[in-house]
Amino acid sequence: MAADPIQVEVCYALPEVQAMVALSLPAGTTARQALERSGLTRRFPDIKAETAVLGIRGKRVEHGHVLEDGDRLEILRPLTIDPKEARRRRASQVKKG
Question: One digit per residue, pLDDT tens: the chain, 97 residues?
Fold first, then answer.
C-alpha cells in the first residue's frame, strides 16, 4: 500500500517579491526534488537547482534531506552584509540619534 502524500510549501523571497508554492508530493520526496517540482527555478532564473542553499524553518538542509508533511522548504539567498556588521551599524545609529 502506498504512503499518503505529504503537503509542503516551497518559498523564495526577494526584497520586491515573494513566492510560495504549495505542493502535494509522494512520501520520501527530497528537498531537491521539491525545489525542482515547485517551478520556482523556471520563474526565477537566478535560482540554480544544483547550487541552491535550502532550509527548513531557517535551518540549512542538504539537497537529499527527506521532507516531512507540513515542511516549509525555503530557498535561501546569500547575505548582503555580515550580521555582526549590521548590528554595529544599527548600534552606531542609536548612539548618534
Answer: 468 999 999 999 998 999 999 999 999 999 999 999 999 999 999 999 999 999 998 899 999 999 999 999 999 987 667 778 878 888 888 777 6
Are β-strands 6-13 and 53-56 bridged in parallel, bridged antiparallel, or unpaired?
Answer: unpaired
Q: Cell numbers of 72, please?
A: 516549509
CATH class, 6-96 region: alpha beta
User: Letter for the amino acid at 27?
Assistant: A
Domain ranges of the chain: 6-96
Contact between 54 and 16 (Cβ < 8 Å): no
